[in-house]
Design a protein that fits this description.
Layout: H1 16-30, E1 48-55, E2 62-67, E3 84-89, E4 94-101, E5 104-106, E6 117-124, E7 127-134, E8 141-151, E9 154-164, E10 172-179, E11 182-183, E12 188-191, E13 199-203, E14 223-231, H2 233-247, E15 262-263, E16 267-281
Parallel strand pairs: 1-16
Antiparallel strand pairs: 1-2, 2-5, 3-4, 3-6, 4-5, 6-7, 7-15, 8-9, 9-13, 10-11, 10-12, 10-14, 14-16
Length: 283
């Protein structure tokens, strides 16, 4: 049989005879000879990609610019140099981010302020991209600890954090996990739709695609660092939709780009957020 499995979906009722005939046709179809089909995938126009963050930590704000590549090319995306990058706050103060390495734009003396709205403007190759983001209220991370859990019959160590969500819906969070200095690929996000005003224990469940990806698993003796980011709702939608697409939970027939808050046709996001970090050695 050519295919290892298939699914047959139908609606309504099918008479026994018709169902039997349909079943025979399906069996014949999937028992036919294997045929190699060459798919000609047409090239697509390159897209601009923006990864821009404003944080409350001195010297931590940056804008990364690149372009996408054709599906037939490697995954090393070309850096975009020579752009003009401006960030304006709601007080009208304009800060220029200058290129300090290929495609990386920074403003070393710049520090974001909680509660302010920031506007991003990028001019490159005759195109203009803009975005806005508000740095939300900072919610303090109380504790970081490791728990032993059972996942698919195996004992797994997970990072956990506690914090008090303030009353009033609208808070959104992103957690970034590092194991022995390496950032893990899993996307962790949360909002307060179901935790509004509660004391939260967030357990960071993760799945690795490769059983041999040992550096993605937390083990005794590892150093685990967790960054807690308070993000606005538009940025939460970006990370949530990106995670849904990556894990196949988007209920879409084909992969889709994450929901961006950037106008002008670029992919990516612009996030103004606070950052808190805690580190521990796993017992």
């Amino acid at each position: 049989m050519c295919c290892k499995r298939y699914q047959l979906f139908y609606r309504g009722q099918i008479a026994n005879g018709a169902y039997g005939l349909l079943l025979i046709l399906v069996i014949l179809l999937f028992s036919s000879c294997r045929k190699v089909i060459d798919v000609d995938i047409e090239g697509v126009e390159a897209k601009y990609v923006v990864e821009a963050v404003i944080t409350d930590q001195p010297g931590d704000s940056r804008v990364l610019l690149s372009t996408t590549k054709d599906v037939s090319e490697n995954n090393q995306f070309p850096a975009l140099s020579g752009a003009t990058v401006l960030v304006t706050d709601d007080a009208g103060i304009v800060t220029t981010f200058t290129e300090d390495s290929a495609g990386t734009y920074t403003a070393p003396g710049f520090t974001g302020v909680i509660g302010r709205k920031y506007s991003l403007q990028i001019n490159t190759n005759g195109k203009t991209f803009t975005a806005e983001s508000i740095m939300p209220e900072k919610v303090n991370m109380d504790t970081l600890f490791i728990s032993d859990e059972i996942l698919f019959g195996e004992e797994t160590k997970l990072a956990n954090i506690n914090y008090q969500d303030p009353p009033g819906k609208g808070q959104c969070y992103r957690y970034v996990q590092y194991i022995n200095g390496k950032k893990t690929e899993t996307i962790f996000t949360n909002n307060d739709d179901y935790i509004d005003g509660k004391y939260v224990e967030a357990k960071l469940w993760y799945l690795t695609e490769d059983d041999d990806a040992e550096d993605e698993k937390i083990k005794t003796g590892d150093t685990v660092r967790l960054d807690m980011l308070c993000i606005d709702q538009a940025v939460y939608k970006f990370w949530f939709s990106l995670n849904q697409s990556a894990t196949g939970n988007s209920q879409s027939a084909s992969p889709a780009n994450a929901v961006t808050n950037i106008t002008g046709g670029a992919l990516g996001y612009f996030s103004a957020h606070s950052v808190q970090s805690k580190t521990l050695v796993v017992p």
